[in-house]
């Protein structure tokens, strides 16, 4: 009756900074590269992008929209919130948490996960990478578990993977970030002879200081500014603030632009130096042959250190020391001290130094890009220990233990608790691990099955999961009620939804049952227990 589920990889991103888009861009690039790799391997696995409902607008502004998703570099990728993902007809073989900044609620994540799902933390290039099972890796894993205990108490460590994309052999590499050939822009006009600045959220004083220093280095009369900085530099449409450095300067500001527009504006800047404050946008600028006036902050240590060390290693010529010094000045903390600003201007004026740094950065990005998706697929496809499901079953039972229990629930008791509480991830584990006799076992004061409890509480997804396992919809409790009877009168649902759920169960029963009578009671149940704790098996 039920078609086989379509396997998916979900790439999720969200961000606390309402102005930042780097996490969403990373997720889009990961999703694109994964889908391309899967197609090249003739795999049936699909990729889906996801974020929260509140951040959906930011994600969908990154690339042109299609009917149900985004058109990313010539490829259509569907976009769903976690709530919209159809977990009944689709399965997740992997959940990729792209630069985990703003985690999704644990209960919503657990709804879409399967026992076989690999959970991958993929940090952005700015993060420090830790080797698996190293002290740093263990500390980081414990921090994640502490940040979302409801989620990670259920996930077995063998299903988790932590790593970082970026430069260096210990990292996963980068997604493909070559300049996109598609996605012609209409939101940003063609401009000439301008410098470019992109700011994610920063303190106003720091933004103004960086703008002033950048204008000293660029020495242009027109500037394009993307991000919230535009309201600081040119408030209320005024092109110049009453600061000496801003006099006679023209600012064209955009609060936000698509990724294609961002890349085009950066590449079109007449000055080889641009301002970028996001790590992904900085790497894209480097790939496009630009130097970035970047702002070192404590959270991006990994990227800055890796880049400077790699630049130093690539430049062993007579100008190598100057090239490395210029890289340190551009990537270091801002604003620069006056002496450092003068030195930066001096080094930028030397063609061999300027072009040497541009070439070194481009080569570094070229070496790393395109490596990320194959590495992630290797992790996702790695062989699993055959004993993993048994260990997951033990964890799921522990998660359902109550204060007055002398031991964790097991067998049918555990299934009934999961069904009653709509603990879908635990329920999926039980349905894979336990035999049907346990699923259909009866317990509690009214001798009810897991399907009775799921129907009583109106948990439609739990009901469908149980029916697909083969749970018997004809079993009667001590009052003579079948699960269908309880679904038809559930106090947890509106009358319309009660009818829908009961009809869905009734249809399944008629189409699949061969042993029981097809006459189904439509009368009111002889006893309704409501939701009191005494109804739940102890």
From TrEMBL:
It comes from the Bacteria. InterPro entries: Ankyrin_rpt, Ankyrin_rpt-contain_sf. This is Ankyrin-repeat containing protein, substrate of the Dot/Icm secretion system. It comes from Legionella geestiana. The gene is legA.
């Amino acid at each position: 009756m039920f078609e086989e589920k379509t396997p998916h990889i979900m790439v999720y991103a969200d961000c606390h900074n309402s102005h930042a888009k780097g996490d969403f861009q990373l997720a889009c690039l990961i999703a694109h590269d994964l889908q391309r790799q899967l197609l090249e391997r003739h795999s049936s696995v699909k990729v889906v992008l996801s974020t929260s409902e509140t951040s959906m607008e930011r994600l969908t502004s990154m690339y042109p929209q299609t009917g149900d998703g985004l058109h990313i570099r010539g490829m259509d990728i569907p976009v769903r919130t976690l709530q919209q993902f159809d977990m009944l007809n689709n399965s997740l073989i992997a959940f990729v948490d792209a630069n985990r900044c703003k985690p999704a609620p644990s209960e919503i994540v657990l709804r879409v996960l399967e026992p076989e799902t690999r959970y991958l933390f993929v940090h952005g290039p700015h993060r420090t990478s830790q080797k698996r099972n190293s002290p740093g890796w263990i500390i980081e894993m414990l921090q994640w578990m502490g940040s979302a205990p409801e989620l990670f108490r259920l996930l077995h460590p063998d299903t988790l993977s932590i790593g970082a994309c970026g430069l260096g052999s210990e990292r996963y590499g980068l997604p493909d970030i070559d300049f996109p050939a598609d996605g012609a822009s209409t939101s940003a006009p063609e401009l000439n002879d301008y410098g470019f600045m992109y700011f994610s959220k920063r303190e106003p004083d720091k933004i103004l200081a960086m703008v002033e220093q950048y204008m000293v280095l660029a020495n242009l009369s027109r500037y394009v500014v993307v991000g919230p900085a535009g309201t600081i530099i040119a408030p209320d449409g005024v092109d110049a603030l009453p600061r000496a450095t801003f006099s006679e300067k023209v600012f064209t500001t955009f609060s936000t632009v698509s990724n294609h527009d961002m890349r085009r504006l950066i590449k079109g800047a007449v000055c080889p130096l641009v301002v970028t404050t996001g790590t992904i946008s900085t790497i894209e600028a480097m790939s496009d042959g630009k130097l970035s006036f970047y702002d070192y902050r404590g959270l991006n240590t990994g990227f800055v250190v890796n880049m400077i060390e790699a630049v130093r290693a690539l430049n062993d010529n007579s100008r190598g020391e100057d090239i490395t010094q210029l890289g340190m000045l551009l990537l270091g903390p801002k604003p620069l001290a006056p002496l450092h600003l003068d030195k930066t201007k001096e080094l930028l004026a030397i063609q061999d130094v300027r072009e040497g740094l541009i070439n070194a950065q481009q080569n570094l990005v070229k070496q790393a890009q395109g490596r990320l998706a194959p590495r992630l697929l290797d992790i996702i496809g790695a062989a699993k220990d055959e004993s993993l499901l048994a260990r997951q079953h033990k964890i799921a039972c522990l998660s359902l233990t109550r204060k007055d229990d002398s031991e964790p629930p097991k067998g049918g008791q555990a299934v009934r608790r999961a069904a009653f509480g709509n603990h879908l991830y635990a329920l999926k584990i039980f349905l894979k691990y336990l035999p049907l006799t346990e699923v259909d076992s009866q317990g509690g004061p009214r001798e009810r099955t897991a399907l009775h409890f799921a129907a009583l509480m109106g948990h439609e997804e739990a009901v469908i999961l149980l029916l697909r396992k083969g749970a018997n919809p004809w079993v009667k409790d001590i009052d003579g009620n079948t699960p269908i009877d309880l679904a038809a009168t559930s106090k947890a649902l509106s009358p319309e939804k009660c009818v829908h759920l009961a009809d869905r169960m009734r249809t399944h029963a008629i189409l699949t049952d061969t042993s029981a009578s097809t006459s189904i009671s439509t009368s009111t149940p002889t006893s309704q227990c409501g939701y009191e704790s005494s109804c739940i098996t102890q």
